[in-house]
TrEMBL record:
Protein name per UniProt: Nuclear transport factor 2 family protein
Transmembrane intervals: none
Organism superkingdom: Bacteria
Domain SnoaL-like: 11-119
Matching InterPro entries: NTF2-like_dom_sf, SnoaL-like
Pfam families: SnoaL_2
């Protein structure tokens, strides 16, 4: 864990980096052996990524797909474990291919070791994602 930043501080920093659309910098926050999980990912999307390189490969095209304009809310909670923080956050933006609005809320659980993300689990609504991209909603 970082000596100067708490897990909550590190999560807030990760949100700022995400908003800046620098996916390389976001991936660089991760440990080389990070595990990222998206339990509610839509069919055909990965539910688990292993390793920093896989995370960057997954994220690098995100700014070309969705233009996140701002984080509309972000509440970060410290936990009893000093290496774990939980974020409840929402964004607004546009899907670049079709101009559809992109409004999404996330619940993110992040574990750090020596200031790097070692485990990242994110929950979000795949139906809203599919709808924004122009697919059918259920």
């Amino acid at each position: 864990m970082s000596e100067t930043l708490t897990a909550a501080d590190l999560v807030r920093r990760s949100l700022d980096i995400f908003l800046s659309k620098d996916m390389k910098a976001w991936a660089d926050q991760c440990d080389e052996n990070v595990v990222v999980e998206f339990p509610f990912a839509p069919e055909g999307s990965p539910t688990r990524l292993e390793g920093r390189a896989a995370v960057y490969e997954y994220l690098k095209g995100y700014p070309d797909l969705i233009d996140v304009h701002r984080i509309t809310s972000a509440t970060v909670h410290a936990t009893d474990d000093p290496d774990v923080a939980v974020a409840d956050w929402s964004v607004t933006g546009r899907v670049l291919a079709n101009g559809n609005p992109y409004d999404m809320s996330y619940a993110t659980f992040v574990t750090f070791k020596d200031g790097k993300i070692v485990k990242y689990r994110e929950y979000w609504n795949p139906l809203a994602f599919i709808k924004a991209l122009g697919g059918e909603s259920f």
